[in-house]
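User: two proteins, same treatment. go.

Assistant:
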Amino acid sequence: MPTTPYKMINGLSEVIGNYDAVILDLWGVVHDGVTPYPSSIPAMEALKKAGVPVALLSNAPRRSSVVTARMEEMGIARDLYGPAVASGEIAYHQLLSRTDPWYAKLGRKVFRTGPVRDHSMFEGQDVEVVDHLEDADWLLCTGPNDDDAKVSDYEDMLHAAKALDLPMLCPNPDREVIRGGVRIICAGAIAGRYEELGGNVRWEGKPLASAYDFCLQAFDKGPDAKLLVVGDSISTDITGSNNAGLDVVLVTGGIHAEELDAPRGTLPDKGKLDALLAATDRHITYAMGDFCW
């Protein structure tokens, strides 16, 4: 992938005049899974005041309605953004329609891993959740059952599932996230290990370009609209934006803050950021230390 120059900025106000709309990541950009970052709500309010439409695209493995409800609980008003698309919503509709050949082959009986908050994936679905792998037709992995779990905790289960040749649906490609200041594994870490073992994994969400297509359909923006993505993860947000051909801001104070040695709100040393981008073969349009106006 060719490298392109990027610009270090202190806030969206420096460049937002070049764009018609914004697509925001949530975890690591707007909030930390527990509370909003101090600058995020003011930034969303400024975008609204400037007349710039905002859509949300999150690798949350649950229905979009659950995501928006959680945002309101955090104090993020619903009128600050338009469409909210969770990767779980994409998977949900695929499961419901089963028009895609991979989904069409799935049976009714599913064995799941993940927290109770992800049960919305089964709303209105013709499925039966089973307690034993031997009874399952497929697996749904929405994350670890407990925040302090490790991938190794699922090793025996994954080997048993592979022996049964069970396909796995993973509606969250994220490997890890920082929740309330603590780094925890996500569904993608468990599903990635299953794939390493030779398991059949179907991914939904970023970095797949299809996630952006789903978001843009909900956004109802014309083909000539100039869009700007804001995200904090090289592996999902930046890769997904590159795959979709969209301009992107990397919030360096998110998941990569530690390796860039730049706390949230500060810009990293350009050499360190250049090295990270080169190592991952990705390019960005802008870098800023926090999601702020």
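Protein 2:
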Amino acid sequence: MHAVLHALSITGSMAWEITWALILGFALSAVVQAVVRRSTIVRLLGDDRPSTLLRASALGAASSSCSYAAVALARSLFRKGADFTAAMAFEIASTNLVAELGVILALLMGWQFTAAEFTGGPVMIIVLAVLFRLALRDKLLRQAREQADRAVAGSMEGHAAMDMSVRGQGSFARRLLSGDGFTAVAHVFVMEWAAIVRDLVIGLFVAGAVAAWVPDSFWRSFFFDGHPVASKLWGPLVGPMVAVLSFVCSVGNVPLAVVLWKGGISFGGVVAFLFADLLILPILNIYRRYYGARMALFLLGTFYVAAVVAGYAVEFAFGGLGLIPDQADATIPTSPAAYAEVTAL
């Protein structure tokens, strides 16, 4: 019973931290789908030029979404006419280049992880853009767009084909604050929640169980703790794999990152783990429903490579500068109240 309560406590801590980000992210997604004109999205994010990807990254960082919400918002942008690469850059920035993630990393793990996150994030976006330019075929992209326009993942799939966008003229504020605008945003908001709530709840319980029940000795053996060279090479490769199986997203994966860091994973491995929050199994399933199975596999491969490269980049850059912190300084939140106290500092 004590072990179960411990796992539930950690689950509650993670849920406490990410709920507000989910609400914000889905609200933004609903506004984009219901109110923002297609012409505006095309003008801002309609291609994959470096300046456009920089703009997409800045907008993503400003949106401050949980991974699930970021995926929904990226799909909304793509459906509205954004370039797919720009939409994915927005998605990465929305979960990995946001202020609250940097603050929590600094409080729980050290400012070096905050610096690594904001250093590795742009590296990941650049690598992903190059991979897309080299490997993404027009046929696959067309299929993904057709699937994105066809259905919303989850229990509200029957309503997915409904176009709830506001047709009226006038300014953005006028359309948003109108009766039709409010109704449309509310409908899309509820549909987006219904699409992922089951995956989200399952993911939080799994992450709490992993953090509470897997002993440190397992992690130390698995991450080659005590073998510096092997650990540095192994960490960025295996970090995203752990993330795929951990189920927890965005800011909510920081507590599990602390567990891995204290368990012996390398600095770059932790960063690669954090960057792979968009590859967890529930989100891969959402990619499949949003864009089709082939695109989901393509995103799995390219996001994994980008996360690994970013992990190696910060591992060797920060190691060379002597900026890797002491593992003993990391702190694991164990209850919603304790987590709230930490994040309120």
